């Protein structure tokens, strides 16, 4: 087997980025001080050397300052023996008293496949409950269900190369530029090389991804089904049906067409001309890929949206062939691997179904399992409801932060807080979820772990250890296996290495292959430890019959009949509709430089400058009606909860809509957890929450004062509004409150932890203004700026003064002869918006490349290029209108 590769340069270690499902290869070179230098791996087939802003900044996220280095029981340091004995004892006792379904694991698409496999084996095979679900329920469940309905298996048909070979790429519910940046860059490069390639972006918001779109369809939130149903009807009417493919390989065409034809596409809010243009582009282009992500999945009709899309590809036979097919892009680095190992409560490993007796019995025999549950376990939302109701009495949360990321997050937080016994395995004890645990187990993180992940195109890559495990941290598979042994299952959990687990998994996949399943990597069963160590990225399946490639182009599907299914899809409205009390539809999602609940990206000063506080996007007309001005604060309230967010007024969003990022936690903001606002409404087929369609009211938050501070030390903010972020050599903090403190200097000292610093201050009580600089040993260790309106100082200037000379800090702006760079756009070279705008006008720059030549901006990872293009456009439109 030639599955090895030489490492070059010599001391760089080949590994895989732990963020998005693109799964980029990384060359990491340890620097000997717990950091590393990072480069894209030119030989990795996902990225060919590219990395985005998050991947490039990985070296800034491995410091140990916030890491948990030993187990903790009830807040006290504990030995591994005592902590794991306690976990095993509590789980055993709870099961003995209340049965196996009184315990649950909630795991994550960021676990490696080997970790995930062991967690599943322990719960489903040995504890005998199916109460193991994963954050992939919030992420990919609708796609899984949609794929299974259409193809009889949860399989992405295509490859990334299809995105380069397509003549039309339709992106729906995907902000690819920010969420899968390297894939986006591959499309940008392909489009440049073949300008005839066209891109359509379907998203209620005008996102950065629109930069490459020939057509942007700002459809009404939740209305994708109506658009794709119309497309199916047009496919039939315009004679674009692949009748032979449908006759030979597809069931359900007539019913699907009937449903589609009766659907009213005006629900989309798009004009007839726009709809026609879209349908004509799609129908007239053979090589079309439809890429979809959370705008599709996270909906009460998520599975239906997926099938409305697969219907169109099946009807035209445009699937599994070069340059064509439906393409679900996965979110997490191992979202796909999790689906393969059976991470969801209704799955077994290797695409086997828990509720299929033959599959269940095959796995039971293979595992020599004492018992197997016969029915699916609780899906995430129901699981936390059962925790809240006291039905689940022992819960183990691994590699995910549900107190922040689950819908109805306050209720989830309270449920966890009220649970009899909670174990959390994480890198840090500071997450909103870990703070509620009885036992916190220190896991190794990216850069320390070893194992495999599968990306969006079914490519299995290795994550490799670059650094030693810090303190007493242990690998997730090792912790799980140890608990399995302590619960009495010695032989089944006697693993010594991830390679051993991988081989067992590969062997099970061979059995799945014999049962007719597609996930079969039995060709890797014989892999030695060395071969596992040196494994190069490879595509499944890997068995005697085939290696990698596309699925379904041959018309062979994995349903009992071997034929694909088209489904009758009827438009269903969102379950919550705006009301006079809650008039706004709240959409939620991601920003370019943060990852989920920020436990890693917020450690990087570079990544923290792009968007440094939680915000809500609102249309200018809505802001005006609410009396909101730029940079005001707004109280956003839903029937579930409330948040306090900075207002970002923009016409990128439609009337009646609002958008807020999902990232902020109680660790970084006073009230920035947007999932506190999201109702726990789920798709009836997949159980995936509708995270993009909360209803909210928005009102101006009348602060008596606003503040901005910088500090070398972590701040201790107490005001009703605060948001903190890392900055070079320290922190930056936004503040606001309703009660004005009497003594701003005392306030600043308490906030910034500088009781003994020398204070320089300028105060104007009549205007409610104060500027205080705190100096220790001649260096500026803190500064606080207070005003009655949002503080008009230059943040980008001030963050660079932290720890430096205190002179001029009180001015809050650069001297008149030194321009203010403005908010960071290019994170790699720290180039601000004002610098870019000035260069564009003064140097008459006409392209993103020209900006790069002048300022370096956009020339490293390229993640900011869509924003550079938008700045160019903003300067050129008025000129053109003159
Ligand atoms: N920077 C960054 N990248 C990430 C992540 C991250 O945290 N940060 N997380 C990763 C993960 S786990 C995931 S799952 C992916 C998610 O990747 P994406 O799905 O691309 O990201 P989101 O921002 O959640 O949502 C995508 C878009 O759906 C749109 N949308 C909302 N409602 C609708 C609708 O009804 N119809 C349509 N057509 N669109 C709608 C939103 O406006 C939004 O722009 O990103 C991955 N990549
Ligand atoms: N409103 C709204 N809510 C959403 C979404 C949305 O679009 N809108 N998106 C949903 C989606 S798609 C997703 S994927 C989820 C993500 O939500 P979460 O999974 O809750 O978010 P993360 O911050 O990625 O949590 C990962 C945790 O694991 C820890 N960790 C990292 N590496 C390791 C490791 O190797 N081992 C262990 N044991 N721990 C580790 C991290 O420190 C962190 O605490 O959020 C969902 N929630
Ligand atoms: S696109 Fe960025 S975040 Fe995603 S895997 Fe590649 S480097 Fe990592
Ligand atoms: Mo996700």
UniProtKB/TrEMBL annotation:
Keywords: 4Fe-4S, Iron, Iron-sulfur, Metal-binding, Molybdenum, Nitrate assimilation, Oxidoreductase. It comes from the Bacteria. InterPro entries: Asp_de-COase-like_dom_sf, BFD-like_2Fe2S-bd_dom, BFD-like_2Fe2S-bd_dom_sf, CT_Nitrate-R-NapA-like, MoPterin_dinucl-bd_dom, Mopterin_OxRdtase, Mopterin_OxRdtase_4Fe-4S_dom, Prok_molybdopt-oxidoreductase. One of its GO terms (biological process) is nitrate assimilation. Gene3D superfamilies: 2.40.40.20, 3.40.50.740, ADC-like domains (2.20.25.90), BFD-like [2Fe-2S]-binding domain (1.10.10.1100), Dimethylsulfoxide Reductase, domain 2 (3.40.228.10). GO terms for cellular component: membrane; oxidoreductase complex. GO terms for molecular function: 4 iron, 4 sulfur cluster binding; metal ion binding; molybdopterin cofactor binding; oxidoreductase activity. Its cofactor is Mo-bis(molybdopterin guanine dinucleotide); [4Fe-4S] cluster. Residues 10-66 form the 4Fe-4S Mo/W bis-MGD-type domain. PANTHER family: NADPH-FE(3+) OXIDOREDUCTASE SUBUNIT ALPHA, RESPIRATORY NITRATE REDUCTASE. Belongs to the prokaryotic molybdopterin-containing oxidoreductase family. NasA/NapA/NarB subfamily. This is Assimilatory nitrate reductase (NADH) alpha subunit apoprotein.
């Amino acid at each position: 087997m030639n599955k090895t590769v030489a490492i070059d340069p010599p001391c760089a270690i080949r590994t895989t980025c732990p963020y998005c499902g693109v799964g980029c290869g990384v060359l990491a070179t340890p620097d000997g001080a717990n950091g590393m230098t990072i480069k894209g791996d030119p030989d990795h087939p996902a990225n060919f050397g590219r990395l985005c802003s998050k991947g490039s900044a990985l070296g800034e996220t491995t410091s140990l300052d916030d890491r948990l280095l030993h187990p903790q029981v009830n807040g006290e340091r504990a030995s591994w023996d005592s902590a794991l004995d306690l976990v095993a004892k509590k789980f055993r006792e709870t099961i003995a008293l209340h049965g196996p379904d009184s315990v649950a694991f909630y795991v994550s698409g960021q676990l490696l496949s080997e970790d995930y496999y062991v967690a599943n084996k322990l719960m489903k095979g040995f504890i005998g409950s199916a109460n193991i679900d994963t954050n992939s329920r919030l992420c990919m469940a609708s796609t899984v269900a949609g794929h299974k309905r259409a193809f009889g298996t949860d399989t992405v048909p295509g490859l990334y190369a299809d995105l380069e070979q397509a003549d039309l790429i339709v992106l729906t519910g995907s902000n690819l530029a920010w969420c899968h940046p390297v894939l986006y860059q591959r499309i940008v490069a392909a489009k440049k090389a073949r300008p005839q390639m066209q891109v359509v972006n379907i998203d209620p918001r005008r996102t950065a991804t629109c930069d490459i779109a020939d057509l942007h369809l700002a459809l009404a939130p939740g209305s994708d089904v109506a658009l794709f149903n119309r497309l199916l009807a047009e496919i039939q009417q315009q004679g674009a049906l692949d009748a032979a493919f449908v006759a030979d390989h597809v069931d359900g065409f007539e019913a699907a067409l009937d449903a589609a034809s009766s659907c009213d596409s005006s629900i989309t809010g798009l004009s007839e001309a726009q709809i026609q243009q879209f349908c004509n582009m799609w129908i007239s282009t053979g090589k079309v890929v439809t890429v979809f992500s959370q705008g599709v999945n996270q909906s009460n009709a998520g599975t239906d949206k997926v099938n409305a899309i697969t219907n169109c590809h099946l009807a035209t036979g445009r699937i599994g062939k070069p340059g064509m097919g439906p393409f679900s892009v996965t979110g997490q680095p191992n979202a796909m691997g999790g689906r393969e190992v059976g991470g969801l409560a209704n799955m077994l490993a290797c695409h086997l179904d828990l509720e299929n007796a033959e599959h269940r019995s095959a796995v039971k025999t293979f595992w020599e399992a004492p018992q197997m549950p016969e029915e699916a376990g609780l899906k995430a939302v129901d699981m936390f409801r059962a925790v809240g109701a006291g039905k689940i009495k022992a819960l183990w949360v691994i590699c995910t932060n549900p107190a922040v990321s689950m819908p109805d997050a306050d209720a989830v937080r309270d449920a966890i807080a009220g649970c009899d016994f909670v174990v959390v395995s994480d890198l840090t004890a500071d997450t909103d979820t870990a703070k509620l645990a009885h036992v916190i187990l220190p896991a190794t993180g990216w850069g320390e772990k070893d194992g495999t992940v599968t990306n969006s195109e079914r490519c299995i890559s290795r994550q490799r250890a670059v650094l030693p495990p810090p303190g007493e941290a242990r690998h997730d598979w090792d912790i799980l296996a140890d608990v399995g042994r302590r619960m009495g299952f010695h032989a089944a959990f006697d693993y010594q290495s991830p390679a051993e687990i991988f081989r067992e998994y590969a062997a099970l996949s061979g059995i799945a292959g014999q049962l007719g399943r597609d996930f079969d990597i039995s060709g890797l069963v014989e892999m030695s430890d060395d071969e596992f160590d040196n494994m190069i990225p490879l595509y499944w399946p890997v068995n005697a019959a085939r290696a990698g490639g596309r699925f379904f182009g041959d018309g062979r599907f994995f349903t009992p009949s071997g034929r694909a299914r088209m489904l009758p899809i009827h438009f269903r409205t969102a379950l919550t509709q705006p009301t006079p009390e809650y008039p706004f539809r709240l959409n939620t999602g991601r920003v370019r430089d943060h990852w989920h609940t920020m436990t890693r990206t917020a450690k990087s000063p570079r990544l923290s400058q792009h968007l440094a506080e939680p915000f809500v996007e609102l249309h200018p007309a809505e802001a005006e009606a609410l009396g909101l001005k730029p940079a005001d604060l707004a109280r956003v309230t839903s029937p579930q909860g409330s948040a306090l967010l900075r207002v970002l007024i923009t016409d990128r969003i439609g009337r009646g809509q609002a958008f807020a990022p999902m990232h902020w936690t109680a660790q970084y903001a006073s009230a920035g957890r947007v999932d506190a606002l999201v109702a726990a409404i789920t798709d009836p087929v997949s159980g995936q929450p509708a995270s993009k369609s909360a209803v909210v009211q928005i009102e101006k938050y009348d602060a008596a004062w606003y503040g901005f501070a910088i500090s070398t030390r972590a701040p201790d903010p107490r005001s009703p509004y605060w948001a903190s972020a890392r900055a070079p050599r320290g922190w930056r903090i936004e503040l606001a409150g309703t009660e004005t403190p009497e003594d701003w200097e005392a306030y600043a000292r308490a906030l910034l932890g500088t009781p003994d610093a020398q204070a320089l201050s300028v105060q104007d009580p009549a205007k409610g203004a104060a500027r205080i600089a705190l100096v220790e040993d001649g260096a500026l260790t803190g500064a606080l700026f207070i005003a009655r309106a949002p503080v008009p100082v230059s943040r980008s200037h001030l963050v660079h003064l932290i720890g430096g000379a205190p002179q001029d800090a009180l001015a809050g702006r650069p001297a008149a002869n030194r321009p203010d760079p403005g908010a960071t756009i290019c994170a790699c070279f720290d180039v601000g918006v004002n610098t870019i705008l000035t260069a564009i006008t003064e140097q008459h720059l006409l392209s993103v490349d020209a900006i790069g030549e002048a300022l370096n901006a956009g020339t490293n990872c390229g993640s900011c290029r869509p924003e550079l293009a938008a700045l160019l456009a903003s300067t050129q439109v008025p000129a053109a209108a003159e």
